[in-house]
Each structure stands twice: as C-alpha cells, then as structure tokens.
Amino acid sequence: MLGVLLVLLVVLLIVNYVFGKREFLSPAFLFTLGFLVSVVWAYAFKDKWGLQLHIETFWVIFGGVTLFSIVAAIVNIFFTKGSLTIERKLDDHYETSVSRTGGMIVIGIMLLSIIYTIIEVQRIAPSASIMESIYEYRMQTTNITTDNASSLVLPKLLALLRNFTDAAGYFFAYILASDLFKKKRINVIVLVITILSLINGMLLGSRTGAFMLLLSFMIFLYIMYRASSQWKKHLSWKMLGLIALFFVIVIFTFQSFAGILGREVDSFSKANYLAIYFGAEIKNLDTFIQAHQFPIRPQGTFGAQTFLEFNRTFGKFFGSHATVILDLPFQNINGLSLGNVYTTFYAFLYDFGYKGVVVLVMLMSSVSQFIFGKVRQFSRQGDISIYALIYGRIAVCLILSFFSDKFYEGIFAITFIKTVIWWIILRWVFVRHTVEVQK
C-alpha cells in the first residue's frame, strides 16, 4: 500500500500543478508536496522500520490530501468568479522606511527578549552552560506532564516580548526580501533584526521557528517575483535549481544545528537522522491508528490536541480545569527511535475521529485558499501586505503538515492573533502612505 500511496501522491501533485496553473505556492500543491516527501522517506526506510501500511492509514493520508485539493480547487473557482477589479481615481504611493532610530528600538526590544529568555531558561533548567540549559529545558517541555506544566510556563512579560520578536522577524524578513528583490541591496538594520529573531526562536531548544522564518522569507521573495508580473511570469529552471539547493543546504545542516543546541545526535547517521524527521511520521501514524479507537479525549476537553493553545487560554471559561498537554508518546521500532510526531492527522483523529479529519481538512483548505487568493489580488507597490505575511506562515504550516498539526497549532492560536496585531502596528509605524490626485 505504501508504494501505491507514493504513486498516487505523485499523480495528485502533478494534477495540482497543472490545474493550478503551474502555481508552486498554491495550498494544494504545498500540502501534497509535504506528504509526498514524507512518503518517499518512509518508503526508503520501510524495511528497516517494518512498515506495512494499513488500509486505514492509506485512506487517511490519501483521502485527506485529495479532499484538501478538491476543496481548494472549489474555493479557488468561486474566489476567481467573485473577484472585482476596482478602478482608482487616486494614486496611492507606499514606501517602507526603516529609520535608524526605529530600527534600533526594535533591536533593543529583541535583545531584551533574548537576555530575559536566557535568564528564565537557566532558572527553570539550571546547568553549567547556556546550551546545556537550553537542552534541558527542551527535554522538560518535550516530556511535559500535568505535574511540571506550570513550572515551565514563561512569565507573561517574556511571552509578550517573545511574541513581538517573532512577529517582527517575519515583518522585517518581508522588508529584507523586498529590498533584495526591488532594490538589490540589504539594509543592515533589517538584516540584524531578522537574525535576532532567528536566534530568539532557537533559545527554547527548537529549530522549527527558525526554519519557518527562513522558509517564509523564501516565500516572500517568490510572492514578489510573481506579483511583479501580475502572477503571469513563472520561475525559470535556474531559479528552481537555486531554491532546491537552498533547501538541500538547510536540510543537511539540520543535524548540525541540533548539536549546537546541545542535543546528542552523533549516534545517528545523516540518513537515519533525516529519515526520523521526514519519514517516521508515516510509520508512527500507522502504529497509532492500529492501536486506538477514535476519538480518544482522555482529558475530557474539546479539541485538546487540535486546539491546544485555545484550550489552555480559554478552557477555564468552558468548565475545563485540567491542564491541557500534548499527548505525543515517543515511538521505537527494533531499538530505533522514531520520535513523537505523527502528521497533522493525528490530532484530528485523536480529538474527533475520522469525521474530524474530513471537517478539519476542509476548513484548513478553505482558509488557506482564501488567504492565498487575497495575496494574488494585492498589487500596491511599496506597501506591506498583511495577507502575504499571514500566508507566509500558513504556507509553511501546510508544507509541515506531514510533520505535525502546524496549521491549527500555529494559526488557530491566540499567539497568532497577537502576531497579526503586531504586524498591523509595525506596518503603521514603518510604512509611509501618500496620495496624489490624478490629473
């Protein structure tokens, strides 16, 4: 069944590419691509992991990806038919201006966030060095329980500072991409802000935030390239090759970054290490489906895994007094660690069963395609599109859906609402708008 799934996902990716008008950034293409890459890795290691894909897992993955593609196509059709062209009587001029004073204020806030984070991490997980503390903190949060959950919560002020730093990273990565594409130059202050956001994202021991920011930066560049020709000009093979090379470099430095953050990774070969991150999710999901009846809901909380952050924030208002934690047990096969990630479908099945897969996939596809449609309509030169910033995050979540529930975990979350608010404030501060009447 795994081989059949591999072939069908290849066909589905081609269909999404052809009928999506050769659009690499469309939600359906990205969602399918992520699962195809994972299945390729899983197929390469199927004998080592003893992976015999069961029919239930086959239909969850193929059915989920197919349903996502169909819903996205339908939303795209209605979105295209409903789009309007508005004639302007005024010329709107926008210019992004990052002054030295404004940039230094942002840098100052980011440095405060970094220093405060280091202090708190060392307080929670004291160790001989910063890197060891980061590793110990990461291990505690990975093995979080109701007993230690409260002790790992960061102070509210620090959480706010980190949220600003994360939001500013994406905002200024957009400006960095714009300067590179339009002006062929780099603003040093903007570059420093982006790098500080990357560093801040890794201080809690995870590389995912930094990886998502880098990937979003590439997406912003792609959006600017396509929008410059009203989405008519496609990438050349040379550009595609450079993008592919960038991803290869990032992927093959993944293990090295883990070592920098204090993780013990020397016992893994490069291939085995990457296989755990890119393919083991398929084996883990298959094991999970065979071992359980759905939905599970042991905590008695609606959407405990899918809507984790909302439950942690608002659960008390709906009668839930339990500390909601991620139930992601580590898996092992033949003495080999396969990690504790199970694809995005794990959370849906856990909370709502097979019906939940259908409903949540449809919602995810609809929202993603709608936002992407808004991105394609944006054409104000010099302005910063909030929709493009949002889709920069959504697109990465869709690509990483083979890994875990990044979409509902990262988009349907109160922290993301705060992030969008920060983007609006930053846009108000750093984008100048003038209007000239046409003669």
TrEMBL record:
Superkingdom of origin: Bacteria
Keywords, sorted A to Z: Membrane, Transmembrane, Transmembrane helix
Keyword Plastid: no
Keyword Transmembrane: yes
InterPro entries the UniProt entry points to: O-ag_pol_Wzy (IPR029468)
Transmembrane stretches, start-end: 30-46, 58-79, 99-119, 186-204, 210-227, 239-261, 352-372, 384-404, 410-430
Pfam families membership: O-ag_pol_Wzy
Protein name: Polysaccharide polymerase
Species annotation: Lactiplantibacillus pentosus DSM 20314
